[in-house]
Amino acid sequence: MELSTASKKVVVFDYGFGNVRSAERALARAGADVEITRDFDTAMNADGLLVPGVGAFAACMKGLRAARGDWIVDRRLAGGRPVMGICVGMQILFARGIEHGVESEGLDEWPGSVEPLQADIVPHMGWNTVDAPAGSELFAGLDADARFYFVHSYAVHDWTLQTHNAAMRAPKVTWSTHGKPFVAAVENGALWATQFHPEKSGDAGAQLLTNWIGTL
């Protein structure tokens, strides 16, 4: 079934730490009505909010807070309004980041720590496959051997969030491996995120963004 992306307004949140133009172009190709902004009301009222991120965890958090992005993400999620994080924009959704021995607070939407990759070669730069769970909406229509583009030196190696209420849908967690397995994507109600860059992942990334937009 083809997903309809017509007239879906998506804001790429511009807080100074993301490849906003690449994200804008990829979302537009996927059929969204896209705007790059840090305007509070526009970000709050969009059908979907995309939070990019590149660089250091602590610097991204500082920039996000300065733009009131932490408050926007929290209030959107409290109202069940979709948010998607990419790369460091995913990492800051966790409780903390540890870089060079220094711990920084994240948004704490999910428990867990972003820590250095445990691999012989760092950063993890290039194409890699992922292991998506059954029933994933984010990876719907994609082959199991689809490859996505990663650029990162840190990741979450342990997923600790548990769902004890049977009425609640358990988060769907996708994994990839570079040295040790790490969290590559999460689907958790209105909050989705990817460690890789869908906007740099060719046809597979375009399908993934189309899948997200189709749920808005």
Automatic annotation (TrEMBL):
Principal location: cytoplasm
Gene Ontology cellular-component annotations: cytoplasm
Pathway: Amino-acid biosynthesis; L-histidine biosynthesis; L-histidine from 5-phospho-alpha-D-ribose 1-diphosphate: step 5/9
InterPro entries noted in UniProt: Class_I_gatase-like (IPR029062), GATASE (IPR017926), Imidazole-glycPsynth_HisH (IPR010139)
EC number: 4.3.2.10, 3.5.1.2
UniProt record, GO biological process: L-histidine biosynthetic process
Subunit structure: Heterodimer of HisH and HisF.
Function in brief: IGPS catalyzes the conversion of PRFAR and glutamine to IGP, AICAR and glutamate. The HisH subunit catalyzes the hydrolysis of glutamine to glutamate and ammonia as part of the synthesis of IGP and AICAR. The resulting ammonia molecule is channeled to the active site of HisF.
Gene3D superfamilies: 3.40.50.880
PROSITE patterns: GATASE_TYPE_1
Positions of the catalytic residues: C87, H197, E199
Transmembrane intervals: none
GO molecular-function term, one example from the UniProt record: glutaminase activity
Name listed for the protein in its UniProt record: Imidazole glycerol phosphate synthase subunit HisH
Catalytic reactions of this protein: 5-[(5-phospho-1-deoxy-D-ribulos-1-ylimino)methylamino]-1-(5-phospho-beta-D-ribosyl)imidazole-4-carboxamide + L-glutamine = D-erythro-1-(imidazol-4-yl)glycerol 3-phosphate + 5-amino-1-(5-phospho-beta-D-ribosyl)imidazole-4-carboxamide + L-glutamate + H(+); L-glutamine + H2O = L-glutamate + NH4(+)
Location relative to the cell: Cytoplasm
